[in-house]
């Protein structure tokens, strides 16, 4: 049978386990928040870059149009390649339009228009 000391040791061990789980949850939550914040900043920067590029292109007729199309196409290609390279299982998903997690590829695809 369990003695009082064994029961007390087990309760103490369970409490330490819960405290470490709570601390780990705080660390994971903070890390997730930082990653999501970085993703939002990358999207904002890509949007501003695209606006500046389009504003510049208005004054350069055909050359500006071609540059905007090529830049957006390259950004989209790079985003798709990054997903293919680092998350190959995403290509077999029935929902290919939405990435499973925020990443540089998602920022490039969304920021390119």
Secondary structure layout plus pairing:
Elements: H1 4-57, H2 61-86, H3 104-111
Helix pairs in contact: 1-2, 1-3, 2-3
Task: Please tell me about this protein's structure.
- The protein has helices spanning 4-57, 61-86, 104-111.
- With 113 residues, the chain is mainly α.
- It has one domain.
- It starts with a helix and ends with a helix.
Short description:
With 113 residues, the protein is mainly alpha-helical.
The largest β sheet comes out as: none
Radius of gyration: 24 Å
Give me the number of helical elements: 3
What proportion of the residues form beta strands (DSSP E)? under 5%
What structural class results from the helix and strand content?
A: mainly alpha
Nearest-integer average pLDDT: 80
Q: Using the alpha-carbon principal axes, give the shape.
A: elongated
- Overall tally of structural domains: 1
Query: In whole angstroms, how far apart are the ends?
Result: 69 Å
Which segments are poorly predicted (pLDDT under 50) over 5 or more consecutive residues?
none
Order of helices and strands: HHH
Residues in helix, %: over 70%
Number of strands: 0
